[in-house]
Amino acid sequence: MRVSAIVAICAVFVALTACAHPRAAALFPRGRDWMQWNQFERQQYVEAYAEGFDGGLRKGCETVLSSATAHSDGASLVEANSRCVDRGAFSGDLMRFVPSITAFFENYPERRDLPVSRVLRELKEGRSIGQIHEEGLGGAR
Fold first, then answer.
1. Domain membership flag for residue 5
2. What is the pLDDT of residues 59-94, one digit of tens each?
3. What is the pTM for the complete model shown?
4. Helices (H), 21-138
5. Can you give the residue range of the structural domain that contains 115?
6. Within 10 A of 112 (CB to CB), how many other CB atoms are there?
7. Is 121 part of a structural domain of the chain?
8. What residues have CB less than 8 Å from 89, skipping those under 6 apart?
9. Does residue 116 lie within any of the structural domains?
10. Within a domain: residue 76?
11. How many alpha carbons fall within 13 Å on the CB side of residue 119?
12. Is it the case that residue 1 has pLDDT exceeding 70?
């Protein structure tokens, strides 16, 4: 078995174990948690999530591209990394997501078991709250 497959299996196991643990559940707030937070806490969540998401994306792009382009010149690496990061990074005013997330969980209380991060990522991809509710969440992320 390849090393990457072993790492992937271990990562899934750790994630499932963490999700099953009550204290770890706090790391993955859901709609019911969002609805209990005040405006400041909601804004802080969105900012922190976006910062962590973008940082992880940037680091992942750098790692993959540096391995794949070990023999490329620096300019090619910078251009390729820029294209990688631009494909998924958050952009614009992050606070625009706060009222949309709130509206989603207010309008669809039966969906309050969803992780806030999943709704936020769907909104980032340009989906409306109606589309998220009607069509469900996108692929596993």
1. no
2. 887 777 777 666 666 666 666 666 676 667 788 899
3. 0.69
4. 22-25, 31-34, 39-68, 74-86, 97-107, 116-124, 129-135
5. 29-135
6. 16
7. yes
8. 53, 54, 57, 58
9. yes
10. yes
11. 28
12. no
